[in-house]
Amino acid sequence: MRLDQFKFALPFLFGLALAAPQPRATTCNGSPALCSRQYSNITFVGAHDSYALPPSLADNQDYDLTQQLTDGIRMLQGQTHNKNGTIELCHSFCALEDGGSLATYLGKLKTWLDQNPGEIVTLLLVNSDDFDVSAFGQVFQSVGLDSVSFNPGTASLTLDQWPTLGQMLDNGTRLVTFMDTKADFTSVPYIIDEFSSMWETAFDVTTTFDCAVNRTHGDPTTQLNTINHFLDIGTTIAGDLITIPNKAGLTETNGISGPGSLGEQAQECITANGRAPNFMLVDFYEYGGGSVFQVAAALNGIPYTQGPIAPVPGAAVGKGTAAGAAMAVITSLVLGMWML
């Protein structure tokens, strides 16, 4: 190219450079290293039954979703039920644990996302009473979450089809939502059918955690995966067998290492499945003083920075016994029945 031709072409080339899309996200979910990583190649800590708070009869967390997210939780799991035509967050049934309406809950999530533009959050909904997905879509629209929700472009995605966190942030799609039943891509494309894109390990575990595929509709070798790492106690009330959280063992269950720890199950699942879990659902995440987040950082290969998280309320239940924790819950249940 002659010099005069180059001078003529220079403004055109400069214009192309300006027009090319430039990556904006430099820190993703707290780490620059995660921006170039696919969503499917990252481990996130999740809050099991994130809405189930004291002083309920069946609580699984001590702090609400705002505190959970502030402390580092990046998956929120919730069980929905039909309460007089309203989508309500309830544990098993609303008389036992009523966490309020889905609309109120999602409104709080939208507020947190607006205040934290560099974060991507995953929502896992259990559609216990088989609402049509359009009802969920209406709630998302009412609080403005539809505008920040990730649309996969197809009904399901394999591991290699997920975008990077940086791409998702650049596109303004910072909420990924899965639902276990009644998802319909043609109706509400940003609510993804869980078991077409993800598999889970067993839940309501009372003894030993494993890494076996418990639920899926697809090929687990191409899917995201969730390990349910919350230990329960079986007990009988009025002749019915129920499971309640084993609060006595929470520090060990949420631990970095040791028998029954989160770190141990994660490593066992890497050995069994050839890859780290994408989501680790836990109860009462603050037990262990941040240990659940330290496990995730190690799996993601990034440094763990100890930050302040909410304290364990009251006395350390972990020093008690499983039987003592069970008796405390049974007492609450009996008193609650009398008060109904």
Automatic annotation (TrEMBL):
Single GO biological process annotation from the record: lipid metabolic process
Keyword Membrane found: no
Pfam families: PI-PLC_X
Keyword Signal attached: yes
Signal peptide limits: 1-19
InterPro entries hit by this protein: PI-PLC_domain, PLC-like_Pdiesterase_TIM-brl
Stored SUPFAM superfamilies: PLC-like phosphodiesterases (SSF51695)
GO molecular function: phosphoric diester hydrolase activity
Keyword tags: Signal
Designated name of the protein: PLC-like phosphodiesterase
Organism of origin: Dacryopinax primogenitus (strain DJM 731)
Phylogenetic placement of the source organism: Eukaryota, Fungi, Dikarya, Basidiomycota, Agaricomycotina
